[in-house]
Each structure stands twice: as C-alpha cells, then as structure tokens.
Amino acid sequence: MKPIPALAATGIGSVPFLDEQEAVHLILDHLPDLPFWPQMAQKGFFEDMVSQGVGGLPLIVRDAEQRVVRVTDAVDRDEALTHFYEAALAGDLETFALTPAEASGFYSLMAALQDRPATAPPFVKGQVVGPVTFATIVKGLDGKAILFDYELLQAVTRGLALKAAWQMAKIGESGRQAIIFFDEPSLTGLGSAFLQISREEVISLLTEVIAIAKETGDAYFGVHCCGNTDWSVLLETPIDILSFDSYEFFDHLTLYDKPLQKFLERGGYLAWGLVPTSPTAPAETPEALWGKFTQQVQTLLDRGLDREMLLSQSLLTPACGLGYLPPAKAKESLATLGALSLRAMAWRG
Q: What's the rounded Cα separation, in Å, for the pair 16 and 305?
C-alpha cells in the first residue's frame, strides 16, 4: 500500500452540525489530504456510534425510544445466527451496509468526491465502533454485557469487521484507499472493575476484527482510544495506526517507549490527538498547541526515536470526536487542525 501523507490531518468521527453537506465542506476545506466521513451525532440516535454498528448483526436491535442498543428475544437465536453466518461467509457486504439514515455524512462525503480526481485526496478515513466497546455497552436478555456471551461476541466481532469491509469497498470504488479506525473508548477502563476483560482477550478481539476485514481487501486499520489505557496492549495488536489523545495523555504513552519504537519500526503510524475536544478544556491558541506538539516530539526523540521515522509516520487529529462542542468551536478546531498540519509538514522539511 502507498504511504499515508506524513503529518496529514483527519478527524475521529462525530461533529456537532446538523447539515451533512456543511460538515463535508468544512472537512474537505480544512483536512484535504485525509478527509473523514462525519458522524452527524446531533441528528438523532441512528447516527450514534454504537447505533451505527447494528445493521446486519444477529439478535441486536435499536430501541429508539429508550435510545439504547440491546439484544432482542423477538427472533429465534439459532435461526438468527444461522442467517448471519450465511451472509457473512458468503461475503454479502450489503447486509452490513450503512444506510443514509444511519450515516448521512458518509454518503455526503462520497458524493462530494465524485467530481474530484482520485488523487485529491488519495485516502479517505472511515470508522466503526470497536468490538470491545460495542460488546461492553450492549446488554443481553439477562442484563449482562454481551462481552460475556462468547457465541454472540464472536458473531458481533465478525459483523463489525464486515461493516468496515463495506466501507473499504465503497471507498475503493471511488479509486481511493481506505483508512478505518475501530473506536474503542471503553478501553479506558481496561484493568479496572468497569471492564472485566483480560489484555489477552482484548488483543484477540482486535486481532480478529482486523484479520477478518483484511480478508476482503487492503486498508490501513487503526484503533482510537480517547482516554488513558494500557497502550502496550494496543501496540501488541496488528493495528497500523495508534490514535491517542496527545493533548491530555501523552505522558502516559511515553511509559511504553520500547513497544512504541517497535511499532514504528514495523511501519506503524501515530495519530496525535493534538486539538482538545472537551467542552471544559481551556482555550488554547494554535501557537500553544504547536509548542506542545514540538515538545512532545522532542521528548520521544530524546528517548531514542528517529526524527524522520517519527514524523513521516505521524498524523494529526482532534483528541476525540467534535460532536459535543458548540458548532462554532468545532469549526475553529477543524481550522486549527488543518493549519497545524501544514505547519508540521513544513517543519518536517
């Protein structure tokens, strides 16, 4: 696969806008090298990250009134699993498609790219809820997370991989290369009573979801975790991109400098969540964020990482999704991110 443009800027997922065409225009304007399709989280429950994972999965339904995703007993379990695996093993990706009601931003972005050459841009980023987060949030009939229902967990993991594969195929039809992030905010609870799963199980699930998606075609795969976690776990998986909140949690990542170096040496990319997205974060000027980024880069160089390798295998992002910021602040964040990307490219030389 061709390399991702060094220090390109992209987004994580959610935006606070109500007009998907406005969102796409802003993204293409400020993040032209690596646009992402926006999750229009303020438009309704169907565009919620977990809700977007439902289509095609067995036994899983949306309860729009309660705004939850849950297991249903309205269908026979064995029959539902049989139908799921028939579609999955046949490679029927349309079963796992995102609909316009679920992902208006995806369809708007792909339409906007139709009249552009495939080299402008050469990459498009998509996202899917990760299997750990989905299976932690969704509850079974017994009220327990389906993370503990091994049979259903295996089906969900395959289904989410095929939802990634559907995005890869649609992006590929435009002549572009896909970059897919599995979003795993639940991993902030790894090692605590809130997430009762071992590091080995996390590694196994993420390895499996990526392996299944890769069976359908080439793409770069990343994992985004918006808080602190045991980064060594993610660095042991076959991800191509580690997406982290460098604004808040860079110091925690430096504790794993040896695994990080091995990750970069095998061709991995770091996606630096440089622009804060918390509504309570202090106001930061672009100059202050630039200073923070260059100091963080220098910290890794002081630990023995190679400058050219580090910068050529880095991307810039917001710390997390922009969906809970006021629209004016989200617009400002996109503009800041785009400007920082251009400055970083010039700094790399």
A: 37
